[in-house]
């Protein structure tokens, strides 16, 4: 039996409007009755291009509880980055609403910069300034906020320790491995104590062993920071390992196909991945992705 709440791909023929609405609210609701960290309602995105319109996202409804970790998975082109960029404030939705902690972040195409200032972003490329040391990169958001030098340096050193970069505070990005550069990018994203952390395939360019270690560390960082996390990945095992819920998107236009709760106990470890429960969740999600082919 599948643990996921699946939305019908062609609901008009198969279910009544009431059933559809009920399925949608069950799927979008966070598992706990806690406060909502992020709310996405009716988000659509259409990119105008010279060859016509690309309908990248359609009818996205999703609530993420405060402190919850949600993974977004789906094939290339299903709209994961588009959704994350909308959640980051970098891209305006064509329609719909995004709220953070009950405050409108995107509403009628207008952005509230103060809301997005509380978000931390991490992308596949670390995008560190090569001429700044690790601490100067990590402390940059604090500098932009006017924090005095000694104070922001102390905070950056603390953050380096949190992400496992102790001893590399004065190194330059070129002196770091790919995994270490991503750690620095995560530390920088955490610098302003973000209420929401948005990550787009942050470990996609790393080798498998480094990626496993980063996943363990990200779990720890999430537990300590208490941030609400939306994490985009191609990897179903990675999505399941990290998440409280896995959201599966399907392409053309990008829609939420299913939301799967992951009730594996925390903290999770390498041993978690060998449990039958983990295997069943991964297999279930793979089957769902394959159904698209
Ligand atoms: N700036 C853009 N202009 C036009 N089309 C775009 C743009 N960005 C993304 N798209 C299209 O939107 C769809 C979703 O893309 P994207 O969000 O990058 O997907 P994913 O991150 O899941 O691979 C794809 O069809 C892609 O070609
Ligand atoms: Mg992408």
Automatic annotation (TrEMBL):
Start and end residues of each stretch annotated as Disordered: 1-36
Alphabetic keyword roster: ATP-binding, Nucleotide-binding, Transport
KW Nuclease (keyword) present: no
Keyword Metal-binding: no
PROSITE patterns reported for this sequence: ABC_TRANSPORTER_1, ABC_TRANSPORTER_2
Biased composition annotated in UniProt, kind: Low complexity: 15-32
Domain of life: Bacteria
GO function terms (MF aspect): ATP binding
Domain ABC transporter residue range list: 38-276
Cited InterPro entries: AAA+_ATPase, ABC_transporter-like_ATP-bd, ABC_transporter-like_CS, ABC_transporter_ATP-bind, P-loop_NTPase
PANTHER family: ALIPHATIC SULFONATES IMPORT ATP-BINDING PROTEIN SSUB (PTHR42788:SF13), TAURINE IMPORT ATP-BINDING PROTEIN-RELATED (PTHR42788)
Full protein name: ABC transporter ATP-binding protein
Species of origin: Pseudonocardia spirodelae
């Amino acid at each position: 039996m599948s643990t996921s709440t699946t939305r019908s791909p062609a609901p008009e023929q198969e279910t009544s409007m009431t059933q559809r609405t009920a399925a949608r609210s069950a799927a979008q609701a966070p598992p706990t009755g806690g406060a909502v960290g992020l709310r996405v309602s009716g988000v659509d995105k259409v990119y105008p291009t010279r060859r016509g319109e690309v309908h990248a996202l359609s009818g996205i409804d999703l609530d993420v509880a405060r402190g919850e970790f949600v993974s977004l998975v789906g094939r290339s082109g299903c709209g994961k980055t588009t959704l994350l960029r909308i959640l980051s404030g970098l891209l305006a939705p064509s329609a719909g609403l995004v709220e953070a902690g009950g405050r409108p972040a995107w509403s009628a195409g207008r952005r509230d910069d103060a809301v997005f200032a509380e978000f931390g972003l991490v992308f596949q490329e670390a995008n560190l300034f090569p001429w700044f040391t690790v601490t100067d990169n990590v402390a940059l958001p604090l500098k932009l906020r006017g924090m005095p030098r000694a104070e922001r340096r102390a905070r950056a050193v603390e953050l380096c320790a949190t992400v496992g970069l102790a001893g590399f505070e004065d190194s330059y990005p070129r002196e770091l491995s790919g995994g270490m550069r991503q750690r620095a990018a995560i530390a920088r994203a955490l610098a302003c104590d973000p209420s929401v952390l948005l990550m787009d395939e942050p470990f996609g360019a790393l080798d498998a062993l480094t990626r496993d270690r980063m996943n363990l560390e990200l779990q720890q960082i999430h537990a300590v920071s208490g941030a609400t996390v939306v994490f985009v990945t191609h990897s179903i095992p990675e999505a399941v390992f990290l998440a409280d819920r896995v959201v599966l998107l399907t392409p053309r236009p990008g829609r939420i196909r299913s939301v799967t709760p992951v009730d594996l106990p925390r903290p999770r470890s390498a041993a978690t991945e060998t449990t039958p429960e983990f295997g069943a969740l991964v297999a279930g999600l793979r089957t769902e992705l394959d159904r698209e082919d």
